[in-house]
Amino acid sequence: MEFITTLVNGLSLGGIYAMIALGYTMVYGIAKMLNFAHGDIIMVGGYTILVFLAINPIVSIVAAVVMCVLLGVSIEKVAYKPLRGSSPLAVLITAIGMSYFLQSLAQIIFGTAPRYVIIAEFGSLELGALKIGHGTLITLAAAVCVMVLLNLFVKYTKIGRAMIAVSEDKDAARLMGIDINMIITLTFAIGSALAALAGLFSLMNVPTIMPTYGALPGIKAFTAAVIGGIGSIPGAMLGGILLGVVECICNSLPGVAPYTTAIEFAILIVILLVKPTGLLGKKRREKV
C-alpha cells in the first residue's frame, strides 16, 4: 500500500513537472529559444494567489492565470521579440537576466521570508492502509485533463496545426499565410497559463512561497523536457511523469533520499548518452 501511495504522489508531482515542461518545450519547438524565466512565472502566479486569496480562492486562481499570461506575453514582446535573428547566446543571457529580474522584484515587494498560502483545507482518501491526500488526487486529475486537452488542441484545431507548421518550418508557414508573431505570442500565453496552474497545484501540496519558489521546479521541469525530447509535447509529458515518479520513489527510501536530485540529473545524462534527442525527440535536419 505504501508503494501505491508513493506512486500516486509521484504521478501527481510528475503532472506538475509536465505542465511546466510543456511551457519550455512549446516555446523551444516554435520559437527555438529556451525561456529560463519560465520557472519564475510560476513564482509570480503563486504571489498573485497570495494577494487575491483574501477576496476568494476562485478569484485568486483566475487572477494568477491572467497575471501569468500577461507577464509571459509582455516578456516575449519586450525582451525576446527584438532578439529574433540574434545569436542563441544573446537570447539565453536575456532569459537568465529576466529570471533574476523577476526574483529581485519579488524580493523588493514581498521580502525574502517564506509566506504561507493556504488555498483550501484538503482531507485524505483512506482505503484500508491506503491513504492519499485529496490535493494529490485533484492535482493528478487536473494534470491528466490539461495534457489531454492540450494534445487535442494542437492536433485538431486550426491554431494548433499552425503551431505545428511553424515549429517545422517558419519560412514555409509564413508563405502559407500563417502569422508567425501571433503564433509565438499565443505559445507564450499558453505556456504561462500552464505555469500558473503548476504553481497552483504546487501550493496545494506544499503551501509555502518565496522569491526563488519557481527556480528548482523550473530546472527540474526543463530536465524533464530534455529527457522526453525538447520540442516534443508528448515527450514533455513523459519526461515530467518519469521525473516525478523517480523523485517520489527516491524520497521514500531513507538511504537514497539525500541523493534524489543527483539521481534525477544522472538519469538525464544516461538518457542523453543513449539517445541524444531524448526519449521521444526527433532528429531535425538543419537547412543549409
Describe the structure.
By secondary structure, the chain is mainly alpha-helical. The chain has one domain: Orthogonal Bundle (ABC transporter involved in vitamin B12 uptake, BtuC). The chain has helices spanning about 1-30, 40-50, 55-80, 90-110, 135-155, 160-170, 170-175, 180-205, 215-230, 235-250, 260-275; strands at about 115, 125, 130-135, 210. The protein has a two-stranded antiparallel sheet with strand order 1-4. Strands 2-3 form a two-stranded antiparallel sheet. Helix 1 crosses helix 9. The protein is globular. The mean pLDDT is about 85.
Under CATH at level 1, the class stands as Mainly Alpha
In terms of DSSP E residues, the strand content is: under 5%
Order of helices and strands: HHHHEEEHHHHEHHH
- The total count of helices amounts to 11
Shape: globular
Number of strands: 4
N→C terminal distance: 56 Å
Q: Low-confidence spans: pLDDT under 50, at least 5 residues?
A: none
CATH architecture type: Orthogonal Bundle
Main β-sheet, in a few words? 2 strands, antiparallel
Helix content: over 70%
Class derived from helix and strand content: mainly alpha
- Total of domains: 1
The side-by-side strand order for the widest beta sheet comes to 1-4
- Average pLDDT, all residues: 87
Brief rundown of the structure:
This protein has 288 residues and is mainly α. It is built from eleven helices and four strands, in the order ααααβββααααβααα. The chain starts with a helix and ends in a 14-residue tail after the last helix.
